[in-house]
Structures are given as C-alpha cells and as structure tokens.
Amino acid sequence: xxxxxxxxxxxxxGWGLGLALLTGGLITGCGQDGSKDGAGTRDAARTGADSPxxxxxxxxxxxxxxxWSREVLGEATYGDYQSMGLSNGQYEILMKVVEAARxxxxxxxxxxxxxxxxxxxxxxxxxxxxxxxxxxxxxx
Length: 140
What we know:
Elements: H1 11-29, H2 39-47, H3 57-75, H4 88-108, H5 110-128
Helix pairs in contact: 3-4, 3-5, 4-5
Protein name: Lipoprotein
Region (Disordered): 32-58
C-alpha cells in the first residue's frame, strides 16, 4: 500500500507549521486586553466584573408566567404546562393569575388586568422561590 505523498516537497512540514502557528496565535491572542501582560483581563476574570450576572429564578419565573398569562387571557384556553416551558409550580401560579385577571378584565378592562398579571405573577413567583429552588423535583 502506497502512502499518501505531499503535493510538493516540504508540504507536510508546511501544513504542520502553518497549523502550529495558527493555533499558537489563537491561543496567545486569547484574553488580551491591549496591555502587554493581559493582567487586566485576568483581574476582570478573577473578580467577575465582565461576567454576566445570573438572573434570579423568581425573575425568570415572573417573566414566563407574565408572558403566558397574557397569552392565555387572550386565548381563553390553557395549554400543556410543559409545552409552555413551565414547571408544575409555575403553571399553578399561571392558573391563579389568569383566573383573577379574567375577573379584573371583565370588571375594569384590559389595562387593569395587565397590571394585576404583573403584580400576581411577581408575588406568586417570589413565594415559590422564597426558600431557593423548589425541592419537589424538577417539575415543581
């Protein structure tokens, strides 16, 4: 069996050298902040100054429950909580919020129902996550 030959003499060395230079350039270029030693980047990484902060679970819950509450209120139907990306606990909040929002919308109009959704979704989610992540399993 004949081994593959390089298309020209030294091509194999050329490819290997080129790859090494490219990889080395990428590696040494990572994390540079314009200073000679890159210390600014290391300091930022150590302090987390440039890192995005994590969104608290009660804020995420509030966003998704508020969104789906308005969707359900407009459609007058409930979907499957899993298809909405909700946990069981979040879905329970959604059902209570939508029930209250329907009554509010009927008596005081859509703007009042929207304000109620904002308040009740926030209160329900803060209550759900007051002690951290619910411990009844991932669906809770």
